[in-house]
Amino acid sequence: MTVRFRDSLRWLSKLNKILPTVKRLNGHELPRTVQFAIEQGPDSSSKRPQTKPLPQSILGFFPNDEVKIALLSFLKLYLSRYDSKPRGESLLPYYTTVSQLAFSVAPENRLSNTQNTFTARVEIENSSGQSSTSYLTTSRLTQAHFSRSRNLLRCRDQTRRRDMIIRGSLAIAHFLDELPSTEHQLESLSVDVAFHSATQIVFTMGGVFYEVSPMNSNSVTSSSLEKSVRKVLRCFTRTMILVAPGGHVIQDDYIVSNPSTSLCKKYITEMATKCKLGNQVPNQQNSVTNSSLDAPDIKDNIVLEFSQRTGMNIPFSKQCLDEYGWDTNAALSAFETMNSAGKIPPEAFSV
């Protein structure tokens, strides 16, 4: 044994694999063969080493600022178009004929009693005197979600699993267009970049959004100008493979689930309180601070992304964004309208 195992640590490792339950050998207590540095105390010979606290987790990881600014600019524009109508037409340029999307929902479609108690009503009156009411709440995932879900715990048929992978830009745009209308809360986003190169980025993003649907009031006393909407809080996680040039998504794994109790408290109870104090309804525009546009790098990336989407050169792209207050959704809608009418001069597309 001593000839074959001259290294005592190696010998103890082999012994532990053969006899993992042995704690003492020849009257001596065997040392622990596996220890994590974070759990070891200052004296490694002590029988019960003092544990050290784990470091705090961080929300999001970016390898450098260049990747961070470019990716956040892309996601801001993508989610803005995702929340716009028509969604399918707006998202069509982001996908190609080789793109794939897999949509799944959490297998549990019930909410706990605690989550069911979160409901808030927010009222606002705009400058025109029109009254708008939003009901922030939670709700079980519906059959419409589960019928489209490729969750492997529920979808056991191999053929159905294969068929439920959506392939191609048209099919993906049509599928996403059928999902409920949404308002993403950009402040909730957490983005982790797993890999990046000059031509590809692999990342995962998670956050919350509201599923928005109109409500028909049955009250005869309600004003005809009153508009009521129901906003159901959901969680989402998406893992994407993004390729350049053009920022096309070739793989999109999309998961939707019900929010936790802490998220319900933050984005229903606390959000309603903030809206009452600030007299504004929560939406994606309020989730982004206008001060973030003051950074020149962010504006440059938005202009570059807008130029890639429209085909216009940088000066005309910047002029279009300036005219619409850097609201990319409004600027894109205006571009599509004017371009279809042939009102954009040819020099806007010259290099």
TrEMBL record:
Record domain NTF2: where: 70-263
Domain TAP-C: 297-351
Alphabetic keyword roster: Leucine-rich repeat, mRNA transport, Nucleus, Repeat, Transport
GO MF annotations, alphabetized: RNA binding
Gene3D superfamilies to which the protein is assigned, alphabetical: 3.10.450.50, DNA helicase RuvA subunit, C-terminal domain
Hydrolase among keywords: no
Biological-process GO terms, alphabetical: poly(A)+ mRNA export from nucleus
InterPro entries in the cross-refs: NTF2-like_dom_sf (IPR032710), NTF2_dom (IPR002075), Nuclear_transport_factor_2_euk (IPR018222), NXF_fam (IPR030217), TAP_C_dom (IPR005637), UBA-like_sf (IPR009060)
Location of this chain's protein in the cell: Nucleus
Alphabetical list of Pfam families matching this protein: NXF_NTF2, TAP_C
GO cellular component: nucleus
Family per record: Belongs to the NXF family.
Annotated protein name in UniProt: TAP-C domain-containing protein
